[in-house]
Amino acid sequence: MFIMKSRILLILALITALPCAYSQTQKNKIDYKTQSYDLVFDRPNCILSVIPMESLPKIKSLTIRGELGNDDVSIIFGKCTDLEYLDLKNTTLQEFNITDFSKVSKLRVFKMPSKVYRLHVSVPAQTNIFGDLFKNCYNLESVELPSELVYLQCNLFVNCPKIASIALPAKIKDFVCVFRNCPSLTTVDLSQCSNIAL
């Protein structure tokens, strides 16, 4: 009996220690010349088992589909310093936890996970910041907000001089003081919004 339990525990330990598998289909593409990655994950929090740490700062374009965890997101936003295009739209992530975008200052296009219903912004207690998630994203041209998003925090977009237009998701209820110092912003599309009292 003891030997059987030991074997089961050993098997379980080996299964959880396996590196992240990502689907070996034609849909997965890594182009080392252009530093473009298009991956499908079947488990969250495993980006480092697919992309070596030393390759992260060189990535220019990253598309991830499938399982995605907040550890993966922290690594992307902390280590992918040359990132210009990020597509997480077709991932399972529901809560987006990130402290800032300062290390991905070259980011131009960001497609947020479509299932996100809550944006969390960690802010140091000593500062008087109200969720400046996209603060100082000087190169950011386009953000595709998740369809399930209900609230946008005040000052969500601060000093984003290249954003010209943005469409708000249908479920948004309020967006007061969301945009500050966004001189190119000419259009905020509310056509899908039915919960905003104008």
Describe, in short, the structure shown.
The chain has 198 residues and is of the alpha/beta class. The chain has helices spanning 2-17, 70-79; strands at residues 29-31, 36-41, 61-66, 85-87, 95-98, 109-111, 118-121, 142-144, 157-158, 165-167, 179-180, 187-189. Helix 2 (70-79) links the parallel strand 3 (61-66) and strand 4 (85-87).
Describe the SSE topology:
Layout lengths: L1 H16 L11 E3 L4 E6 L19 E6 L3 H10 L5 E3 L7 E4 L10 E3 L6 E4 L20 E3 L12 E2 L6 E3 L11 E2 L6 E3 L9
Give a description of the structure:
The protein is α/β, with parallel strands linked by helices. It has helices at residues 2-17, 70-79, and strands at 29-31, 36-41, 61-66, 85-87, 95-98, 109-111, 118-121, 142-144, 157-158, 165-167, 179-180, 187-189. It has a 6-stranded mixed beta sheet, with no helix packed on it. The longest helix has 16 residues, at 2-17.
Helix content: 10-25%
Poorly predicted ranges: 8-19, 21-26, 121-130
Q: Pairing-aware structural class of the strands and helices? A: alpha/beta
Number of helical runs? 2
- The ordered H/E elements are HEEEHEEEEEEEEE
End-to-end span in angstroms?
69 Å
Strand order of the largest sheet: 1-2-3-4-6-8
Roughly what fraction of the amino acids lie in strands?
A: 15-25%
What would the principal axes of the Cα set say about the shape? globular
Tell how many strands the DSSP assignment holds.
12
What is the residue-averaged pLDDT?
Answer: 78
Described by strand count, sense and barrel closure, the largest sheet is: 6 strands, mixed
Radius of gyration based on Cα positions: 19 Å
